[in-house]
Amino acid sequence: xxxxxxxAFSTLITALSVxxxxxxxxxxxxxxxxxAYTTTSNITFGSNITASGSNYTLxxxxxxxxxxxxxxxPLIIWAHGGSFIGGSKTDGxxxxxxxxxxxxxxxxxxxxxRLGLTPFDSVGAVRAVLRAVQDMKAxxxxxxxxxxxxxTYKIDTNNxxxxxxxxxxxxxxxxxxxxxxxxxxxxxxxxxxxxxxxMEGYSGNxxxxxxxxxxxxxCGALGRYGWIQPGDVPFCSLHGTIDATVKYNRGFAAPLxxxxxxxxxxxxxxEQANAIGLxxxxxxxxxxxxxxxxxxxxxxxxxxxxxxxxxxxxxGCTDPALLxxxxxxxxxxxxxxxxxxxxxxxxxxxxGVVGINELTNTAIIGSVFPNPxxxxxxxxxxxSNTSHKVELFDIAGKLMSSESxxxxxxxxxxxxxxxxxxxxxxxxxxxxxxTQKVMFN
Length: 441
Prior knowledge:
- The protein folds into 2 domains: 25-314, Alpha/Beta hydrolase fold, catalytic domain (Rossmann fold), CATH 3.40.50; 365-440, Immunoglobulin-like (Sandwich).
- It has 8 helices and 18 strands.
- It has helices spanning 2-20, 92-102, 122-148, 167-177, 181-185, 190-196, 266-276, 297-314, and strands spanning 37-49, 55-65, 73-79, 107-111, 155-165, 214-218, 221-222, 235-240, 250-253, 261-265, 282-285, 365-369, 376-381, 388-394, 399-405, 409-413, 420-428, 433-440.
């Protein structure tokens, strides 16, 4: 009997030891441990209004290792290129990246986001980037929601990475590092930001986390290098030195050869990250133009290997690197940057918090009653001397109603709304806003 107990104890210790090993202990994530992948196409993760005013359903294609039994897997969300005026989730480079990393054991999601650059100038470019950022955030929240509900995709939400190619990389970088409202106000006025839906947007899955583990920047850029600050998540970059579309250092992004907006390219971002001690592996394609991996298998191999090295390091694996950095030694031309300190007013969730929070600002909304309500509820505004915009969104972030009032109170009627949870957003004339949960029975 004593021997049986010892054997059982030994088996348990062995099992715990295997469980405690590095996630790469069996080769997973560091090598192609799966021979095939499975693609699930056109999964809806939200919707929102396009630049032209029409409603757009946001979809993604999800790539998973075929036959995988792991229940806690890292995720990479990819966004395609196309200068915010074209491209799709089925573009060859993001499909290839999704397939390659699915074979290593990752779950990959290739997303569509709203396109449209109207007007075709710097203001239109900023608006286009913000819409794409809002959509990417909705895709991140989709997987947090899935984890807390059906757990269909078996994602380890502690290991979510975002990345993209060209405009997709610009989207991922701004999703990670554009996190203060005054940074956007450098380009557009606060009221325009409110009209667009703020930094978080209402593209879907409101009030779940958008926390990520790292960023994959493939030929992308950021509005200002100084938006990368100590404590931000690490990133890796690959970029060509003669990129004429998105500059390697600093320059105007030039879709269709038309100079639109001044951006800091990958080389500038590396200088800033080095200065603040942020991990940022960087690979330079000398003498190469925009996205060379899109049409060259060897460059795609380079991209996959370099990104693989970055990811496994973030996962805590100790496998040797496949590709060393080759960053040039010269110093980029940095400019003076003043740190922006105004935080974004979150609509209903604090970054990094999973779940739904009620953020009632009593300086705007005095009270809402009855809540829950069978048919009608009354909003009492704290300040009756200003106008208020009253918006109601469903749990997916879809706008259900929008009205403005000069009165001290406002009545919301259920009418044809389905029973359930909604988000009430009230915005004052000067642009201040707050959001809280309301329920119709």
